[in-house]
Amino acid sequence: MYSYSRMPYYYETDQMKIVHHSNYIRWFEEARIAYFDNIGYDFVKQERSGIVCPVLSVQAEYRHMIRFGDPIRIDTRLTEYNGVRYGFSYLVKHAGTGQICCTGTSTHCLLDSDGKILKIRTEYPEMHELLCKALAMDDYKA
Question: How do 55-62 and 2-6 pair as beta strands?
Answer without folding.
Answer: unpaired
